[in-house]
Specification:
By secondary structure, the protein is of the alpha+beta class. It is built from eight helices and 13 strands. The longest helix has 25 residues.
């Protein structure tokens, strides 16, 4: 898919334009670490600025499409069958601390079905793209999920509930269960990149709860088109509604899902 479809070309162009602002702003973050208030306000502004660029570019490329955005919420379009789901800066805490692990995430929904996804880290210049039925690619190179069949050999990614969230006990039970079964657990700080890394075979699997649709929509397309499986915590296809997700190849995702269910019952 080195020659992009028209829709993907629109997504790639929008992501690259928004990325230029994020690259500049990321370079400024370290200069703002002298005050606690300054960096947080700066990152919020960078987030909103990137979202504005994405909104304008995607609207220009596909007039009438609706939007679901992290900052701007729902924008109804004249075309009721298409909707962009976007996160202009997934990994804001990393961005705030000068950690180069964050991404722009863009997904396209058609008639309620996810049909295209893009995840782009502007700092590493790694762009993950996928369209339904076309496969998944990293910078035009075809990617596939890992083929490991045993949890004991697998590296699994997750996300940790933020401060003040009530689900820490449940997460600790899940983490304890998973740690006893896998080769390693990783916490990156960006759900979009976690899913992109599963699609590329870097992580064998990933799970997390309480996510927003814009965190995971693009990554879902990537994993599926890379030959992987994605479900919610109950094994159903309601990730965008429930905010829970388990992803990996068919065998590992099933084993991880079973492990998490057992852990959830004991929490």
């Amino acid at each position: 898919m080195s020659r992009h479809t028209p829709s993907m070309s629109v997504m790639v162009a929008a992501a690259r334009k928004a990325a230029r602002g994020l690259q500049r702003d990321f370079g400024e973050v370290e200069n703002l670490q002298v005050s606690l208030k300054g960096p947080a306000n700066f990152v919020t502004a960078a987030d909103k600025k990137a979202e504005k660029v994405l909104f304008e570019e995607l609207s220009k490329g596909r007039p009438g499409y609706g939007f679901l955005m992290e900052e701007g919420g729902v924008v109804e379009g004249a075309d009721k069958s298409h909707r962009w789901i976007i996160d202009p800066l997934d990994g804001t805490t990393n961005f705030l601390h000068g950690i180069p692990v964050f991404a722009i995430s863009i997904a396209l929904e058609r008639e309620g079905q996810l049909v295209a996804g893009l995840v782009y880290n502007p700092i590493t210049d790694e762009m993950f793209i996928a369209e339904k039925g076309q496969g998944a690619f990293l910078n035009d190179r075809r990617i596939r999920v890992a083929v490991r069949r045993e949890l004991a050999q697998s590296v699994v990614a997750t996300g940790i509930p933020h401060i003040g969230r009530p689900e820490h006990p449940k997460f600790m039970a899940e983490l304890g269960a998973v740690m006893n079964e896998v080769a390693g657990v990783r916490r990156m700080g960006s759900a979009a990149l976690d899913l992109a890394f599963v699609a590329a075979g870097r992580f064998d699997a990933y799970w997390e709860a309480n996510l927003a649709p814009w965190d995971i929509a693009a990554g879902i397309v990537l994993v599926r088109e890379a030959g992987g499986f994605v479900s919610d915590m109950s094994g159903r296809d309601t990730m965008l509604a429930t905010g829970g997700i388990v992803a990996g190849n068919e065998i590992i995702s099933r084993q991880l899902g079973d492990l998490l269910k057992k852990a959830g019952k004991t929490a």
